[in-house]
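Below is a filled-in request sheet from our internal design queue. Each sheet records the structural input a requester submitted and the sequence that came back. We keep these sheets so that new team members can see what a complete request looks like end to end.

REQUESTER: design group, bay 2
PRIORITY: normal
MODE: inverse folding
CHAIN LENGTH: 136
BACKBONE (tokenized):
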């Protein structure tokens, strides 16, 4: 799926952008921020869609901002949305990226390939080396 038009992408935090060590913030997952920046550079809107709330959510948002990602909305469909108990907590997005998908999280390398349509340079296959090559 190559994205030819701007879409809204909801992204989970714990276990997807960072390793899941909730309530702490884990280390960034390999290529998470690079992929998110590329998607934003292409004009896609990113929504942080997280179980976190209050201070823990503020910490996650600040962590992402420190890594160059400012979200279009956080746990909302659009920035001005006001949550009330008479409406659904489900947000509107075209794609959801979450470690709780059926089959688990495919990894940011595959997300990048699927959505951006290119390989992250570090994912390019390297020539196989043989033991004897080290002595040549």
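RETURNED SEQUENCE:
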């Amino acid at each position: 799926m190559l994205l030819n038009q701007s879409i809204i992408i909801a992204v989970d935090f714990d276990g997807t952008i960072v390793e899941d060590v909730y309530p702490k913030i884990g280390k960034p997952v390999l290529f998470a921020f690079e992929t998110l920046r590329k998607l934003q550079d292409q004009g896609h809107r990113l929504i942080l869609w997280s179980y976190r709330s209050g201070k823990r959510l503020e910490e996650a948002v600040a962590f992402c901002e420190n890594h160059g990602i400012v979200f279009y909305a956080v746990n909302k469909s659009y920035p001005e949305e006001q949550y009330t108990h008479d409406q659904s907590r489900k947000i509107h997005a075209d794609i959801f990226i979450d470690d709780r998908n059926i089959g688990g999280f495919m990894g940011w390398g595959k997300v990048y390939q699927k959505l951006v349509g290119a390989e992250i340079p570090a994912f390019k296959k390297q020539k196989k080396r043989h033991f004897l090559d080290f002595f040549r």
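SHEET NOTES:
- The mean pLDDT is 83.
- The domain at 8-80+87-120 is CATH 3.40.50.1000 (Rossmann fold).
FILED BY: M.R.
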